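Backbone-to-sequence.
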């Protein structure tokens, strides 16, 4: 499988531009962490890109990500990729987050969505986005209210990274593809 195959699968099942961009943001963060940790960049990127590909068709638990995992298995994706994607859903008890990749996906998922929300309300978008302003927005319950703050903090903790460093790292990863994410001034 190539990244082009992964993207074709995303496009086959996901029409919404926002959700596609979210998956790309998580992919960028996962690839950056894989490089930093000496892990397989392609596998980690694949997990980030595909983690929500089934969400539009099956948004309810536990259909997402279980329906998607069936599709991934039918298309020949590895058990490692499928397990990691299933593990990002807290409600799938048989797939606890075990590997560092599982933990990274959970840590990056909600945070990347929140960082996108933070960037969208700034005239300079991702450019110049600082940890301090993200932390301030995290304290505002009404801002991006659908984002689970507990998942952001517990995800960083379980992954073993300090929250401020994690925020800064994910901002930098997303800045690398800011044009593709539509997050440039």
């Amino acid at each position: 499988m190539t990244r082009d195959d992964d993207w074709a699968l995303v496009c086959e099942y996901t029409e919404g531009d926002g959700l596609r961009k979210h998956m790309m943001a998580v992919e960028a963060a996962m690839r950056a962490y894989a490089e930093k940790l000496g892990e397989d960049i392609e596998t980690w990127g694949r997990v980030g890109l595909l983690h929500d590909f089934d969400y539009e068709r099956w948004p309810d638990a536990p259909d997402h990500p279980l329906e998607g995992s069936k599709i991934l298995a039918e298309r020949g994706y590895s058990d490692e990729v499928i397990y990691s994607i299933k593990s990002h859903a807290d409600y799938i008890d048989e797939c606890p987050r075990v590997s560092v990749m599982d933990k990274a996906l959970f840590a990056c998922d909600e945070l990347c969505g929140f960082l996108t929300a933070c960037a969208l309300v700034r005239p300079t978008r991702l450019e110049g986005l600082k940890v301090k302003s993200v932390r301030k927005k995290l304290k505002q319950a009404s801002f991006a209210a659908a984002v689970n703050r507990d998942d952001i903090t517990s995800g960083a903790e379980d992954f073993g990274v300090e929250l401020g460093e994690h925020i800064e790292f994910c901002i930098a990863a997303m800045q690398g593809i800011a044009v593709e994410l539509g997050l440039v001034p």
